[in-house]
Amino acid sequence: MTRSADAQDNQLGGLLLREMLKDDHTNIRVLSLLAFNAFERQNYREAIGAWEIMLKVLPANDQRRAVIERSIDQARAQTEPGTTESADKQ
C-alpha cells in the first residue's frame, strides 16, 4: 500500500505503519517504511522524525546511517522557503 499510485492507499499504508510502531517504536524496518511513505506523501516533517528515531536506535557504525542522513538533508531541503515543494503539502 505504501508504494501504490493511489493517494488513499499511501495514506492507509502510513496509518498501518504508525499502528505497528505502537507495538515496537524502535522497529527499524517499520520506521524506514514510514519515513519513505511520508516523504513520498510530501510529509517531510514526519519523514525526518522517523529517520531521526532510526539514527538514535542504530549503532554508530551502521552503514545505513549515511543514507538516512542524506535522506534527512533532502527532506529538510524540501521544507526550506524558496523550494518548489513545501512541508505544508501534507
Automatic annotation (TrEMBL):
One of its GO terms (cellular component) is plasma membrane. GO terms for biological process: cytochrome complex assembly. Residues 2-65 form the Cytochrome c-type biogenesis protein H TPR domain. It comes from the Bacteria. Pfam families: TPR_CcmH_CycH. Keywords: Cytochrome c-type biogenesis, Repeat, TPR repeat. The keyword Flavoprotein does not apply. PANTHER family: CYTOCHROME C-TYPE BIOGENESIS PROTEIN CCMH. This is Cytochrome c-type biogenesis protein CcmH. It comes from Cedecea neteri.
